[in-house]
Amino acid sequence: MLKQLLTALAALLAAGSFGAANAQEVTLKGISSFAEKTFYSRGFERFIDKVNADGKGVIQINYIGGPKAMPPFEVGNALKGGVVDIANVTGAFYTNLMPEADAWKLTERPMSEIRKNGGFDYMARLYDQKLNAIFLARHIDNNPFHIYLNKPISKIDLTDLKLRITPVYRDFFQSLGATVVQTAPGEVYTALERGVVDGYGWPITGIFDLGWHEKTKFRVDPGFYSAEVSVLINKDAWNRLNAAQKKIITDAAAWLEAQAPETVKENETDIARQKAAGIQVIAFTGADAVAFRSKAYEAAWAGVLKQSPEHGAKLREFFAKAK
Ligand code: 173
Q1: pLDDT of residue 6
Q2: Interval 42-79: pLDDT, tens
Q3: 298 HSE (CA, 13 A, CB side)
């Protein structure tokens, strides 16, 4: 009798008709706004490997790929509409939907603190309202941006220079007199090669991934801000998950975000690699460095406040260094 019951139960489970849809393995469609296997995709790829290992028979992520599959500035829209379920993307790439997301670059406190001081919850509400999404994990932090140039500068002035940007750098570079042109990362190499731009903004890591070191003469120090790349999930996709599926995702997300401080080691590796590649450092030091960095933050916060006065003021309280 018991044996018969168990056989019947096994048949039901195999047919997926037991416990309705909840017992079935769910597959989420995942996309990265950075090229596959390059620095800013690697954390997401580790996250996918973990979910797919821990989630066998429960939840899986089908990794569609990077910008070859979808233009990076479209990823926010695709996530919002549920065209993709889970995305690796930085706030600057979806400012069309949520200008406040670009303020992540201005955090001067660790994410562990921002998750406690109300800043994370404040942002989470904006992700809910504006992007129909849940912010799972920031895997890039402590990773400064820099100006890379092919023409030297001797003072903090970018007049007569044409620089490749994303929203990350716009206000700061323009405040220093630069002419700016926005491109996806995939277009930077060609823009440099053709002399369409005299330089570009990019973090300290990753310029080797797409070969830009071949077309880069100078890096300007110090760096500024803290690059943010994060894993987001569409809210409807999230709401369809059962408790076990959600747990696999949230555990992997916490695991991934906990690794973000290790970005610092990669910063050091790429600084050495840039030096070995012959990239010269134009260093502003002392009071110049202080002025350079405070200009960077002032210009960016002014930009955030202009686009979103109320939320911007709150975010500044949560994100900026305590005075
Ligand atoms: O320069 C960029 O494309 C950009 O905005 C960015 C943001 C985070 C990480 C790497 C690049």
Answers
A1: 45
A2: 999 999 999 999 999 999 999 999 999 999 999 999 99
A3: 8
Position 122 scores a pLDDT of: 98
Contact between residue 80 and residue 97 where contact means Cβ atoms under 8 Å apart: yes
> In angstroms, rounded to a whole number, what is the distance separating the alpha carbons of residues 200 and 187?
11
- Compute the distance between CA of residue 48 and CA of residue 248 in angstroms, rounded to an integer: 11
Residue 27 contacts residue 60 (beta carbons within 8 Å): yes
Ligand 1 centre to CA of 240 (Å) is: 31
Predicted local distance difference test score (pLDDT) of residue 4: 52
Q: Please tell me the distance between residue 202's alpha carbon and the centre of ligand 1 in angstroms.
A: 6
- Three-state DSSP class for residue 194: coil
Question: Tokens in use for 199?
Answer: 């330089």
- The pLDDT, as a whole number, for residue 322 is 79
All residues at 6 or more sequence positions from 209 whose CB lies less than 8 Å from its CB, including other chains: 35, 38, 39
Q: Classify strands 229-234 and 133-140 as parallel, antiparallel or unpaired.
A: antiparallel
> Ligand 1, from 104, 107, 168, 212: best to mutate by most atoms within 8 Å of Cβ?
168
Sites in the chain below the pLDDT cut of 50: 1-2, 5-21
Structural element, H or E, at residue 81: helix 75-81
Spatial contact of 43 and 229, defined as CB atoms under 8 Å apart? yes
Beta bridge partner(s), residue 218: 149, 280
Q: What is the pLDDT of residue 73?
A: 98
Q: What residues line ligand 1, using a CB cutoff of 6 Å?
A: 40, 90, 92, 166, 168, 185, 201-203, 227, 229
Classify 110 in phi/psi space as left (phi over 0), alpha (psi -120 to 50) or beta: beta
Has this prediction a pTM greater than 0.85? yes
Q: Whole-number mean pLDDT of the chain?
A: 94
Best mutation site among 148, 197, 202 for ligand 1 pocket (most ligand atoms within 8 Å of CB): 202
